[in-house]
Predict the structure.
Amino acid sequence: MQVASLRAAETEDAVKLRAWWYPVASARPAPAVVLLHGCGGMLNERGEPSAKTREYADLLNGHGWHVLALDSLTVRGEKELCTQRIGTRKVTMAERRKDALGALQWLAAQPQVNASRLALLGWSNGGSTVLAANNRSHPLVDGFAVRPRLAAAFYPGCEADLRRGYRPASDTLLLVGLADDWTPAAPCQQLETSGPPSVKALAYEGAHHGFDGKSPVRLRTDVPNGVHPGAGVHVGGNPAARQAAQQALVQALENAFAAP
């Protein structure tokens, strides 16, 4: 693991970001995946990558893929966004979109990376970032030279891109929980299309927000957003959904990276 420095997309004076680089040993350029954290940030209380970040880096490295885990918060003076109301958050989706595109640009310039085989992967707010950075309805995305082979998102908020109109730059995989009362599954399911590029939503029964985690389901009353604002949201793991979703993710990435 190494700490990398890169810039958000669009302008030369764009904010300078920190990312954690998990490369694989390979005799030739290998595919690479950008990890985009949720509203809780990607760092733990010690300022190190979270257990989830390390888990997915290990999972993806095990299949021979480089991983770049991007931190969008600390450089902007924030630790988390979950307790901030949507519309008042200090780090906006526009900023996170530029961060994701900047990460793709950085990867494409690395000699050990196969620039034609890149992917975006995010969770919750980071999943929404995946959609924002892969939606050609945004002029910045439409004109961007580097595009992922796959855009994958765990339990993203899909309402904004559903309203705007989602014109995917690449195939999109949405992994959502049918019991999610924070970012509901239905808007994501409504984005489905056979394409190309295709948008596929896999929805899991009994799965709440954060279903790929290992902690038991609990009520977070400190979150002001969600299906029932002010009533809190449920967050926690579902072992069956976790296993199925991770298998679906790996299969989708294998298919995307194997494509000509």
User: Anything to note?
Assistant: The chain has one domain: 2-258. The two ends are 30 Å apart (CA to CA).
